[in-house]
Amino acid sequence: MKSAKIIFWVSTIFIFLFEGLMPALTSQTELAKEGIRHLGYPAYFGIILTVFKVLGATVLIIPQIPGRIKEWAYVGLAFDFIFAFASYWAVDGLIGLTLFPLLILGILIVSYIYYHKINSTAKSLF
Questions:
Q1: Nearest Cα residue to 115 out of 1, 8, 31
Q2: In a designed cystine with 16, which of 47, 61, 67, 74 is the match (CB 3.0 to 4.6 A)?
Q3: How many CA atoms does the CB half-sphere of 21 hold within 13 Å?
Q4: Cα 115 to the center of its chain, rounded Å
């Protein structure tokens, strides 16, 4: 049980830092704006994406948030990574950067699996 909690928190904190904190701090930089333009999206899409990334990552990190809302946050972030992969692939082809969202998706999946392991163990104790 202790190792499951450690794996959950390490993977979830990584997702929070990568999808919550980093976009909140860097979304208005010229590099981030150019990244959105490069993929062919309008500028406002970057703002909307940042808001939802920060909200989703925050939901995952706060233990008091109900499980149903956390499920939607996991789904939303998974879509984000899948669509990021598809966007990079469509614009740049299959290069190293294209696969990076799939790596982060893998970490999100680890967080999701261990979220359920912790909760199923906690429910079986009562």
A1: 8
A2: 61
A3: 8
A4: 14
